[in-house]
Structure formats: C-alpha cells, structure tokens
C-alpha cells in the first residue's frame, strides 16, 4: 500500500541548509520512495512510499529543524494505474513472482543469553 505523508516545515525561505536537512532525513527513513517540497505560504514536505512511519519521521525532523507539524497521512489513489494493473495482472497470474524483499523483517522476540552460576564450594554458607 503506497501512502503519502505531508509535513509542514516552519523554516526560513532563504535557508537552503534546512531544506537539505529535511530531504536527507526524509529519504533516510525505511520505505520512502520519493520526497518533494511544495512552496507556497509555507513549505510542505511531501513523502511518498510504502510502510512509512509518519510519527518517527516527524520526530526526526523536529530534532533537527525545530517546529514541524504533521498535516496528513493517507493512501495514494491511482485509479488509472489500477485499471492498467488489472489487465496486466490477469496475464501474469500464471507465473507469480514472490516478494523476496521486505522492509520490515520479522525477528520475533529478542533472545537473551542465560547463564547458570554454580557455587564452587556448596558446603560453605554464602551469607558469611
């Protein structure tokens, strides 16, 4: 599921460094396909990708840039692409290809090493 995240940046219009920082942070997040800044009354960072964690992205931008506001998160509606995909997918159903790449591998619960410590001299009292 491709989604679009729009984040409002409160930066100075002449500050090229802040825009560069915003791009670097956005592109470094897992699952991000593209990032663009829309100029208007204020800068809006538009990030497109799959399985983007908007909260983590917003917090990373706040650490580096200061005040940042999350505007919207939602799926991308591609009606034209879906029609074309349906005609192509009917022909390719005979030879499906597995998804070998995953952005978020499932590692399960963390594993901890357990060591058993035995007293070398069990006849002595451990308190004294």
Individual helix count? 3
- What's the rounded overall pLDDT mean? 77
Main sheet: strand order: 2-3-1-4
The description of the largest β-sheet is: 4 strands, antiparallel
Structural class: alpha+beta
Pattern of helices and strands = EHEEHEH
- CATH 2nd-level architecture of the domain at 2-77: 2-Layer Sandwich
In whole angstroms, how far apart are the ends? 65 Å
Number of distinct beta strands: 4
What CATH calls the topology of the domain at 2-77 is Alpha-Beta Plaits
Radius of gyration: 25 Å
Instruction: Tell me the fraction of residues in β-strands, as a range.
Output: 15-25%
What characteristic shape results from the CA principal axes? elongated
CATH top level assignment of the domain at 2-77: Alpha Beta
Helical coverage, percent range:
25-40%
Low-pLDDT parts are: 87-93
